[in-house]
Amino acid sequence: MIDVHAHVIVRELLRDAAPEEEWRPAIHHDDRGQVVELNGRSIRSAVGEFVDVPVILEQLGSDGVVLSPWVPLLFDDLERCRLQNSGIERLVSDRVWVLGSVPLTHPTELRDAMARGVLRGVEVPALPDLGRFEEFWAAAEETGAVVFIHPTTRVTLPEYYLWNTVGNPLETTVAAAHMVMAGVMERHPGLKVVLAHGGGALVALRGRLRHAHSFQPQARSALEEDPVESIRRFWFDTVMHDVGLLRALADFAGEDRLLLGSDHPFDMADPDPVATVRAAGLDPERLADNARRLLA
């Protein structure tokens, strides 16, 4: 197993490293479990190990893992990005690959980060206008950077945990659809873009995107090819919590575009992604090969 969707907080960012800097996260434990303090909030949804990489690997039971930042720590501030990247690069081993972070408005920073040869790419937030960052996408294609699109958990659906169960995949759906209809995937066919949570509802909405593109001037203003062809250019993780939906995703995208993921350390993680993949009739070894090919 190679888990492509797992998060880490590097020690260099923790409040312990600079107690006077309140923007930093702090982690402690009480009788109810782990608590992450950030921006005045106490967050309990991170139920697994968040910092110690050997413990993360042990909890995952994986042969390898791609570690990426916790999304609230995808900074617009260059210095904080650089601090995080220096810490996450330190984690690389024969079992650990890493994705860093750069502001979407600083494509030169992406080029510089990739030139060091340690990061395999970056994680970016699922913004609703993600397709507008043309210079960033050009730099990502040029450098071969893997770009992992992950929701920001900012959708306001306060009741019944809907901000997570619906809001997160909704963010990914909108961000990826914007990239498709803005023509990003068509203009940059060499991009390596991974969508969290099976791409949200993107694949289920492909018919609506295709139909609008067939007649509506705004929908076809930036995209020449069939939107479905652009959707097929993405990579998708397996964190869907439904083997029928995962099987349908494989039937659409092809097994060679799927990547095993857990979403560690959160309570919405898949506790046994290998079993999930097998239950969907997929081969976890093949998905591991997909990850190696993507990360090469």
Q: What does this 3D model show about the protein?
A:
It is a single chain. The chain has 296 residues and is α/β, with parallel strands linked by helices. It has helices spanning 53-60, 78-89, 107-115, 134-143, 162-165, 167-181, 184-187, 206-215, 227-231, 243-253, 273-279, 284-295, and strands at residues 2-8, 26-30, 33-38, 41-43, 64-69, 96-98, 121-125, 146-150, 192-195, 235-237, 258-259. The protein has a single domain (2-10, 51-295), classed as Metal-dependent hydrolases (TIM Barrel), CATH 3.20.20.140. The strands form three sheets. The chain has a five-stranded parallel beta sheet. Helix 2 (78-89) links the parallel strand 5 (64-69) and strand 6.
Distance between the termini: 16 Å
Q: Can you give the mean pLDDT?
A: 97
* Low-pLDDT residue intervals, each spanning 5 or more residues: none
What strand line-up does the widest sheet have? 7-8-9-10-11
**Number of E-state strands:** 11
Measured on Cα atoms, how large is the radius of gyration? Answer: 18 Å
Main sheet makeup: 5 strands, parallel
Shape call: globular
Q: Name the CATH homologous superfamily.
A: Metal-dependent hydrolases
CATH class designation: Alpha Beta
Whole-number tally of structural domains: 1
Query: How helix-rich are the residues, as a percent range?
Result: 25-40%
Number of helices: 12
What CATH calls the topology is TIM Barrel
Percent in strands: 15-25%
CATH architecture: Alpha-Beta Barrel
Structural class assignment? alpha/beta
